[in-house]
Each structure stands twice: as structure tokens, then as C-alpha cells.
Write a structure and sequence with these properties.
The chain has about 100 residues and is mainly α. The chain has a domain at about 70-100. About 55% of the residues lie in helices and about 0% in strands. The protein contains 4 helices and no strands. The protein is elongated, with a radius of gyration of 39 Å. This is PspA domain-containing protein. It comes from Amycolatopsis melonis.
Length: about 100
């Protein structure tokens, strides 16, 4: 006998199947319909989904870039030019009033 056999704190155990966890087995998900035929031709749904995904991605990127709104580069340049012209006009008006014109 070894020193472990005499130790009262050592408990012999055995591996037992737990029936509670065996019933919790996750069923495998159903397989999706194949996107391609056996001949390698994509299905209509696959092609349509791919086109719709690309289209919505392009719309989203335009919105993110701000080009789908009134804040385009041309519109902002025009606003700056209009503001600068208004400032010049106002300054000219102030100068005329100081000269007494």
C-alpha cells in the first residue's frame, strides 16, 4: 500500500455519465439551400441577394460620405463664396457710410 491509500482525505471516484447534460445536446441547425447548382450555376436568390447587398452598401457609403445631402463639396464652396461676397459688400457699405457718401 502506498501513502495515498492510507490518507483519509483521498477519495476514490469514478467517471459517470451525467444524464442531465446528455439531454441538453444542441441539435445541428438545418443546412441552408445551396447557392449553386451541381453544374456551378448560382441560384436566382443568391444573385439577387448579392446585387441588393451591393446596392444598399453603395447607398450607405454615399450617406456616410455626406454626398446624398445638401452638404456636397460644391454646395459648401458656394456657401463660402456667398458669405465672402456678403462680407465684401458689407465692408464696402461701411466704408461708403464713413466717407459720407
Amino acid at each position: 500500500m502506498s501513502e495515498r491509500d492510507d490518507d483519509p482525505n483521498v477519495v476514490d471516484g469514478e467517471i459517470v455519465d451525467d444524464p442531465a447534460t446528455a439531454s441538453l445536446a444542441v441539435p445541428s441547425p438545418p443546412l441552408p439551400e445551396p447557392d449553386y447548382s451541381e453544374g456551378g450555376v448560382p441560384s436566382f436568390d443568391f444573385v439577387r441577394d448579392k446585387i441588393e447587398n451591393r446596392y444598399t452598401t453603395s447607398l450607405g457609403s454615399v450617406d456616410v460620405a455626406g454626398l446624398g445631402t445638401e452638404h456636397t463639396a460644391e454646395a459648401l464652396d458656394k456657401q463660402i463664396a456667398d458669405r465672402d461676397q456678403a462680407a465684401k459688400d458689407r465692408l464696402a457699405e461701411i466704408r461708403r457710410s464713413l466717407r459720407g457718401e
